[in-house]
Specification:
The protein is an all-alpha fold and 280 residues long. The chain has 14 helices and no strands. It has a domain of 193 residues: MetI-like fold (Orthogonal Bundle). The chain is 72% helix and 0% strand. The N and C termini lie far apart (50 Å).
């Protein structure tokens, strides 16, 4: 009888899967532990070794969350803000990316370089002038103060410009112009459909970032009815006492919409990222 030995490729595949399982566990365990604390109390967060079995107080703590702060209104506010920002970035960054990639105008390269350089500036430096602008417009303590500054950003413009450059040939655009298409028609009917997966991924990234944003909403929002979900979680804590069970329960409830979103569109998001990774 001949003994078969595993090929080096099989051994390599085994190690790859083992590393992926460990990485997945490292990513999922904090979320699971957050749920464990959200079902028990503050003591569970300080136990050594950490408790890994959920308790039975989740619905009680969730009821306290909804009675302490206007949590449902905060979730709705976050959905409005994050959804509008996600759609806005997908459209406006695609427009800017199309202009930088396929249109010829004076100062294009210098302007694009300036846009890219803004990514090196910490966002915290813009809070004071941005707040002054919102105050002069009368937008303090309103949702448009969160939405309008987030409708486009340098990363999104750079992302879409790279996809436009790789996915759209100049010959197609020239043929469309010969047929009498306007610049807007070329963008909406030819360019945007070709980069729709990239725009979809950018919109999801913008949605998640806006959903998790804390600093700017904390600065500009004052009224409880205007709170986003992250500010509502902060309102669950006091200056002298932090109920970790209550805070973790609110954090878990705030994370559920993102989990549901990823369940439905996660595969499409990964496909859009991989599509951009292998083009060119």
């Amino acid at each position: 009888m001949t003994r078969t030995t595993p090929r080096s490729g099989d051994r390599l595949r085994w190690w790859v899967y083992a590393l992926l399982v460990l990485a997945a566990f490292a990513c999922v365990f904090p979320l699971y532990w957050m749920f464990v604390v959200a079902t028990t109390d503050t003591a569970a967060a300080t136990e050594m070794p950490p408790r890994v079995v959920p308790g039975g107080n989740f619905f009680h703590l969730a009821g306290l969350v909804f009675s302490t702060v206007p949590f449902v209104r905060s979730i709705v506010n976050s959905l409005v803000v994050a959804g509008t920002i996600g759609l806005g970035q997908a459209l406006f960054c695609a427009l800017a990316g199309f202009a930088f990639a396929k249109l010829r105008f004076r100062g294009r390269d210098a302007l694009f370089l300036l846009v890219v350089l803004t990514m090196t500036v910490p966002t915290q430096l813009a809070i004071v002038p941005q707040y002054m602008i919102m105050s002069s417009l009368g937008w303090v303590d309103t949702l448009q103060a969160l939405i309008v500054p987030g409708l486009a950003n340098a990363f999104g413009i750079f992302w879409m410009r790279q996809h436009m450059t790789n996915a759209i040939s100049d010959e197609i655009l020239q043929a469309a112009r010969i047929d009498g298409a306007t610049t807007w028609q070329i963008f909406w009917r030819i360019a945007f459909p070709l980069v729709r997966p990239a725009a979809f991924v950018l919109g999801l990234i913008g949605f998640v970032y806006a959903w998790n944003d804390f600093l700017w909403p904390f600065v500009v929002l004052k009224s409880p009815e205007m709170y986003t979900v992250q500010i509502a979680i902060k309102a669950l804590q006091t200056n002298f006492n932090i109920d970790l069970g209550l805070a973790m329960s609110g954090s878990f409830l705030a994370t559920l919409p993102l989990i549901v979103l990823f369940v439905f569109v996660g595969r499409r998001m990964v496909a859009g990222i991989m599509d951009g990774a292998f083009k060119g």
